[in-house]
Amino acid sequence: MTSSAMRDLMAITARPEVISLAGGLPDTSSFPPATFAAVTNRIAAESCAKALQYGPTEGLDETKACIAEVMGAEGMTVDPADLVVTTGGQQVIDLVCKTLIDPGDVIIAEGPTYPGAIPTFSAYQADVVQIDMDSDGMRVDVLEETLDRLEREGRRPKFVYTVPSFHNPGGVTLSTARRRRLVEIARERELLVLEDNPYGLLRYEGEAPPPLYQLDGGVYVMYLGTFSKILSPGIRLGWVAAPPPVLEKIKVGKQAVDLCTSTLSQLMVQAYFEQGRWEQYVDSLTEIYRRRRDAMLAALEDHFPPQAEWTRPGGGLFIWATLPDFIDTTDLLARALRDNVAFVPGNAAYLDDRGHSSMRLNFSNSDEDEIREGIRRVGKVIEEQVALFGTLTGKTAAASPSQPEVDADTPRARVLPLPRRREDGRRAGGQ
Amino acid sequence: MTRVAVVKGGRSLERQVSLRSGGRVEAALGRLGHDVVSVDVGLDLIQRLREAQPEVAFVALHGRDGEDGTVQELLEILDVPYTGSGVLACARAMDKVLAKHLMVDSGIPTPEFFAFSETAFRDLGAADALPAIEERLSFPIVVKPSSQGSALGIKFAATAADVPAALVAAFSYDSKVLLERHVAGRELAVSLLDGRPLPVVEAVPQEDRFYDFESRYDIGATDFVCPAELPETVTERVQELAVATYELLGLAGFGRVDLMLDADSEPYVLEANPIPGLTETSLLPQAAEAAGIGFDSLVERLLELS
Predict the structure, then answer these.
(1) Model's pTM, two decimal places?
(2) Complex ipTM, two decimals?
(3) Cα distance between residue A256 and residue A254, in whole Å
């Protein structure tokens, strides 16, 4: 199953009767309309002409000050001269590829990786090498082995793309030790890293590990940030902090793409930040999302069969669940859509054949009742398939709906690291 | 000028493809000077059609509801003439199992197959028959849902170990599935207009891959050769079989018959599509083009045949 079929399936998930655990949308319903009105009124009264005008390609100084504040909240210091304000974080991925990638160049990414990066990487005809993750994020030891192998093959990766905190779609976070090692590797090998950090401030428990950008001091690490998850994706505002030679090329690239980021959006951020309550809003979102995550984790325990595994994210928007390898989650989605529930098939997070038995589940854009009901429906379809497989193979279907509940003392689900590349030979090809 | 309702979209998994087919038909109808009403099939279908009062409906639906005769039945009730095949022909063609049984009965070569419902496995222990079937068909075996229109849910089982998962996948789309002998060879499609065959199209997958959903609808993923480079006798034979299949199922207006040509140039009919795709990359428009029939003329002709 490949991208256009996936797009066609995903288009059906947008129907109103579908409980969609597929999207990656933040909840914008709790944003106070009065705040929005105050922000826009103020721009109309004080900077109407400026808001309606073009701005500098690298962004307004006022916006950069807000960005420095946000990065400061995660323990980073940044020189505003190292920043370019972009049209969403997505544009950063595009501009970095535009700057660094010629067809056939290698990009290293996690496996699974952010599904939205894949069309960008593909458009620049990059050769993407995906590194497995476990519960501590990217396997940095595997990264080193891979870099050695590539070096022997005479191929030098242009950059490492990583979502170290609350990975999309993996739901895991890169440990502090691995962060330190990754930054060392970048220095030893003079290798650029693109740290994509949209979710770092959406933390529901535990202590934040240091951002790669801070550990490295912005020498080899390029940093991608966004206002999408802490304020609004609708304003389309992101940014990149990068070393000067790269940044200059990014500016040239951005000029060609869209001249500048929306001045109106940038002034909205400035006016909003001047009210001084942005962190309170992030706190309120964090409360909402924590409850939804907990609801989803509880529902998974209740409704997914014991053969399933899933990640337990300490923040962010996503859980990554892996089913027995005889279930193909794209086919499962087609079946689940008949019951009006949707998720993202895991293969959408890979450039190769992997991820077929995994799925990404979003908990930020549905309320707790919808999450419980959605997971119940997905769980029911999985149980049907597990039972059918049991019937077909003559093995006892442990999760058959007709069977009694398992012993109450038996853990009903294991929370385990992300899976390795699946074993071949068990499943049919043909996709 | 005719008032035409273009019926498209719906809830089928091929919704997006149908929207592309329908959009292209609408544009053609506009160029031809017709009065076009666009209808995305949903709960308000009857109401929309009653309001629009079309003189004719152009059915551009693919997959469930559109291609299986359901919408055609509703159009009959409303007494609106429509393009393409009638209810019974759609029902026959959309059900691959039924269509293949009919082919076998009338001597049209189709790959050997066995069909099962989910209840056969659940209640009748059909799994015990799998080894015998596997021996009879020999690997690789193609496993597919009976009614899915595109290549969604079609899997190749290379060994016995692949069969259960392939069946689970196929049952995601339909309660009836078939296991079919794999015919290795060239993939051919014969489109028909008013029962007459158009030039044969050969789908040549790029790299070594099955002609799947992706390559079927993405420009550039598959190379199409039209007319297919075949000896004249083979072309004639393939077209004859396509016509025989079209007539057997009772298709009307247009249709497309997909075949495999094995290494000995023996053709096998895989399936017939009562509403072939009409997108930029679809096979029927390409075949019509090769016969000197442009897309607008094709659309006009289908209206006349409704």
Answers:
(1) 0.88
(2) 0.87
(3) 5
